[in-house]
Specification:
The chain is of the alpha/beta class. It has helices at residues 16-27, 32-47, 63-67, 81-94, 107-120, 163-170, 177-184, 199-209, 212-217, 226-235, 239-246; strands at 10-15, 51-55, 98-100, 124-128, 143-152, 155-161. A 6-stranded mixed β-sheet has the order 3-2-1-4-5-6, with helices on both faces. Helix 1 (16-27) packs across helix 4.
Length: 260
């Protein structure tokens, strides 16, 4: 990895909100910002990326809330997390890291927009996040996801996710991730999914048909029981909205160091 000879440039795109939340629950408010900053330093030193961006969720509602007011309903912010996020952002800005936060969008949308820009520039993109929503960005040979990273002495212990990992674990390809999640739902975002359709049934639909659009063109091509088939047909009117909520935007207006 990195900008070493005969290797593509690396863009390191960090889901800072996701990372701070994970550190907050693991280490508490007093250590979270320092832990996060030190890990960003270590990744930069090891891989020598030509671009490092830390994306934060902006305060306030997003376009998804406008489309679906129930989006993320019932999700409470733990006491102290706002201060931890602000401290982490301030530390990264002091380090000279490009910090991005754009009102109306989530950190994931910023990362998706930059991933598209990075791959267009023939860069190797590393997406640093444990968020499964970002599986849709993974592309063999150009975009991988770093789901966990921790210091192990002078080295980094990393948990990588590539396209093959997604397919082995879930039975679908990254390009099918949005359709898969539209069927199984996402409790953390209050996206209901299709009743009676679990992970195995959703994977069967996509293996047989390739996409939700093609399923609805040939709904008997997938092996589903009578109840599952009926539920899928009944859910058809809601699927465009669910997919819109789950699809990461690649048109976020980004400028250098844009903090909402």
């Amino acid at each position: 990895m990195g900008s070493r000879a005969n290797q593509p440039d690396t863009w390191l795109l960090i889901d800072a909100t996701n990372a701070v939340y994970r550190d907050f629950h693991a280490a508490g408010v007093d250590r979270v910002a320092t832990l996060f900053r030190d890990r960003v330093r270590a990744m930069g030193d090891l891989w020598e990326p030509v671009r490092i961006v830390a994306a934060f969720d902006a305060p306030g509602p997003t376009f998804r809330h406008e489309l679906y007011p129930e989006y993320k309903a019932g999700r409470d912010r733990p006491a102290g997390i706002a201060a931890a996020l602000a401290e982490a952002m301030a530390m990264l800005l002091d380090e000279g890291v490009d910090v991005q936060s754009v009102r109306g969008f989530e950190a994931d949308d910023i990362i998706a927009t930059l991933t598209a820009a990075g791959t267009s520039a023939d860069a190797r993109v590393v997406v640093v996040s444990a968020d499964k929503d970002l599986h849709q960005l993974i592309a063999e040979g150009s975009v991988c996801q770093l789901a966990a990273v921790r210091r192990d002495g002078r080295a980094l212990d990393c948990k990588w996710i590539n396209a093959r990992d997604v397919e082995v674990r879930y039975g679908v390809k990254p390009g099918q991730w949005v359709d898969y999640r539209a069927m199984v739902g996402d409790k953390s975002d209050n996206i209901p999914g299709v009743t009676s359709i679990g992970p195995e049934a959703a994977a069967r639909v996509l293996r047989a048909c390739g996409s939700l659009d093609d399923f609805y063109l040939s709904p008997f091509a997938a092996t589903l029981n009578e109840r599952q088939h009926a539920r899928m047909i009944a859910a058809k009117p809601t699927m465009p909205l669910m997919r819109q909520l789950l699809t990461l935007r690649t048109d976020v207006p980004i400028t250098q160091g844009a903090v909402a």
